[in-house]
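Researcher: We plan to redesign the surface later, but first we want a full-length starting point. Tokens attached.
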């Protein structure tokens, strides 16, 4: 108990200053609980309202992926440049240092491998384990138009309910099947469904026409998925187009860890996302960093 002797009389009530009520910097998050907003602030930089998320969860259905064979060797050096990391709980526990202080988005659905129907996923993580590991959000795949569409949507709503009880946001990840088109109409449908049913953040692909309508029609932040490996300038251009058309950042994996210079690439992506550096300038930055790292033997 505090010592009461020698305590001063209270006087600094600032009667002429209205009580401060700060808003929250992310779209659709101003009415969430404090804990959930605190977790979102670990994923998204408050200064820019955007994130560079490093996706390394591919192994949950692909197995060892090129660039992710030894995460301790290829990914750990990149963590210092990532605002958030998207990974499975197995990798988080076995490989990621507990000293990593930025956001962790934990893959929380799974089941089939590439040998089976991918939309047949189930919830793969209990909320107690997500809280135990202090993750910033849980990610769940949603297959709008897929064979198991309703099941995947139900997976998401179950995670949303569990997350709301514990203050853990849910990231709805829109999956595009082989027979579905990545156009604004489909992406707008998939992202809006995720948001309407409670996801606090949605991850989706970029489309060259009408992407601004996808982000405008979604009442929560959209993070752009990196997708398949592109040449560095193309990947930087896609990231620039996405954030200037309303995305709250990117979640890139192969376009970073499969780059010729992953550390240079993730830093260049950060310049695009947080500083809105033009693609050509960001590419020049990438080349400079790549050269410097090569000289340093990194």
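Model: Full-length starting sequence:
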């Amino acid at each position: 108990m505090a010592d009461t002797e020698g305590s001063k009389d209270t006087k600094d009530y600032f009667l002429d200053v209205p009580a401060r009520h700060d808003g929250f910097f992310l779209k659709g998050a101003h009415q969430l609980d404090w804990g959930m907003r605190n977790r979102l602030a670990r994923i998204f930089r408050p200064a820019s309202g955007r994130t560079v998320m490093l996706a390394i969860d591919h192994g949950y259905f692909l197995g060892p992926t090129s660039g992710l064979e030894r995460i301790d060797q290829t990914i750990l050096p990149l963590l210092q440049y990532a605002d958030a990391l998207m990974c499975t709980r197995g990798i988080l526990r076995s490989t990621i240092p507990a000293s990593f202080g930025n956001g962790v988005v934990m893959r929380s659905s799974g089941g089939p491998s590439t040998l089976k129907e991918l939309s047949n996923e189930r919830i793969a993580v209990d909320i107690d384990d997500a809280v135990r590991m202090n993750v910033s959000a849980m990610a769940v795949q949603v297959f709008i138009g897929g064979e198991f569409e309703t099941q995947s949507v139900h997976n998401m709503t179950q995670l949303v309910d569990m997350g709301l009880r514990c203050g853990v946001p849910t990231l709805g990840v829109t999956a595009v099947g082989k027979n579905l088109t990545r156009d604004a109409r489909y992406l707008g449908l998939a992202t809006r469904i995720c948001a309407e049913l409670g996801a606090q953040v949605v991850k989706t692909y970029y489309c060259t026409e009408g992407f601004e309508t996808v982000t405008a029609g979604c009442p929560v932040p959209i993070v752009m998925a990196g997708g398949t490996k592109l040449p560095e300038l193309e990947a930087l251009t896609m990231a620039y187009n996405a954030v200037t058309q309303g995305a709250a950042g990117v979640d890139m994996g192969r376009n970073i860890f499969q780059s010729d210079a992953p550390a240079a690439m993730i830093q260049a992506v950060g310049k695009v996302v947080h500083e809105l550096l033009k693609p050509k300038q960001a590419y020049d930055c990438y080349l400079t960093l790549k050269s410097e790292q090569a000289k340093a033997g990194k």
